Amino acid sequence: MQEWKEAFEVPNTLGWIEIFILAGLLYFVFRLFQGTRGASILSGLIVLFGILSAVTSLSHLDVLNWILSKLMLYITLAIMVIFQPEIRRVLARLGRQPWRNNGMASQKSLVEPILQTVKLLSKRKIGALIAIEREIGTRAIQDTGTRMNSAVSSELLATIFFPHTPLHDGGVIISGDRICAAGCLFPLSQKEELSKMLGTRHRAAIGITEETDAIVIVVSEETGAVSIAYNGRLRRGLNAEKLHRVLSSMLRRERTGLARFREKIQTGEAMLSDTVLMTLNEEQDEE
């Protein structure tokens, strides 16, 4: 009994500080994983392992305590494998560095062409999926589609999504003020609480915003309804006025130097590719 009393002895000031720091870290981790399919599993594992560790330590079950300590490494590795999508999303969010702002021009010029496109597609009930890249890069997702380097215009966007065209089935990604890829396959959200009424297009919109900070506009093929997804959340049933207001507010925010540096690299790659193609065409003409 004396040993149990000593185990639950009131900590000193330093002990309380350590408890508050640990509690804050656990709360931060749970907030980051909140709403994901791994949240309930992760919390259950932590609670179960904590109870077992406390019981084995206080009861002097040395063998079981030794086994649990050895299993800790394998449990950690298993968590990293099982929750790979969630961990990737968390690390991507931590790497956004929103405090580094060097005054790069906003993307507010995109509002009008996107709005005109959405109005047309919504009226004709043509499905669309348009992602606007922000701080976190989408290179891996761009590679699933067809690379482009085109100015954003309502005519081009509408043409891409028009039925039976080669690129209409996937999503479009806009980086800076250029369309950089079309026909892309966006990752599907695995959230369990999502409505079963949501189709693949809406789940893809939520999925890419879970892994990146992109802004995604969705037009339903069945109803023509317009939705916008950001930070893993979907806002549905937007009319033209609401969409204009939301997009203007979100795209007015300044972007960091990281985004500008990435855009310069992508522009340089596109220019180099165009130069190589022109050279090859000239050589073929000479032959």
From TrEMBL:
<keyword id="KW-0548">Nucleotidyltransferase</keyword>
<dbReference type="InterPro" id="IPR014046">
    <property type="entry name" value="C-di-AMP_synthase"/>
</dbReference>
<dbReference type="GO" id="GO:0106408">
    <property type="term" value="F:diadenylate cyclase activity"/>
</dbReference>
<feature type="domain" description="DAC">
    <location>
        <begin position="84"/>
        <end position="240"/>
    </location>
</feature>
<feature type="transmembrane region" description="Helical">
    <location>
        <begin position="40"/>
        <end position="58"/>
    </location>
</feature>
<keyword id="KW-0812">Transmembrane</keyword>
<dbReference type="InterPro" id="IPR036888">
    <property type="entry name" value="DNA_integrity_DisA_N_sf"/>
</dbReference>
<comment type="function">
    <text>Catalyzes the condensation of 2 ATP molecules into cyclic di-AMP (c-di-AMP), a second messenger used to regulate differing processes in different bacteria.</text>
</comment>
<keyword id="KW-0472">Membrane</keyword>
<dbReference type="GO" id="GO:0006171">
    <property type="term" value="P:cAMP biosynthetic process"/>
</dbReference>
<keyword id="KW-1003">Cell membrane</keyword>
<dbReference type="GO" id="GO:0004016">
    <property type="term" value="F:adenylate cyclase activity"/>
</dbReference>
<keyword id="KW-1133">Transmembrane helix</keyword>
<dbReference type="InterPro" id="IPR050338">
    <property type="entry name" value="DisA"/>
</dbReference>
<dbReference type="InterPro" id="IPR034701">
    <property type="entry name" value="CdaA"/>
</dbReference>
<dbReference type="InterPro" id="IPR045585">
    <property type="entry name" value="CdaA_N"/>
</dbReference>
<feature type="transmembrane region" description="Helical">
    <location>
        <begin position="14"/>
        <end position="33"/>
    </location>
</feature>
<dbReference type="Pfam" id="PF19293">
    <property type="entry name" value="CdaA_N"/>
</dbReference>
<dbReference type="GO" id="GO:0005524">
    <property type="term" value="F:ATP binding"/>
</dbReference>
<protein>
    <recommendedName>
        <fullName>Diadenylate cyclase</fullName>
        <ecNumber>2.7.7.85</ecNumber>
    </recommendedName>
</protein>
<keyword id="KW-0808">Transferase</keyword>
<keyword id="KW-0067">ATP-binding</keyword>
<dbReference type="Pfam" id="PF02457">
    <property type="entry name" value="DAC"/>
</dbReference>
<feature type="transmembrane region" description="Helical">
    <location>
        <begin position="64"/>
        <end position="83"/>
    </location>
</feature>
<keyword id="KW-0547">Nucleotide-binding</keyword>
<dbReference type="InterPro" id="IPR003390">
    <property type="entry name" value="DNA_integrity_scan_DisA_N"/>
</dbReference>
<comment type="similarity">
    <text>Belongs to the adenylate cyclase family. DacA/CdaA subfamily.</text>
</comment>
<comment type="subunit">
    <text>Probably a homodimer.</text>
</comment>
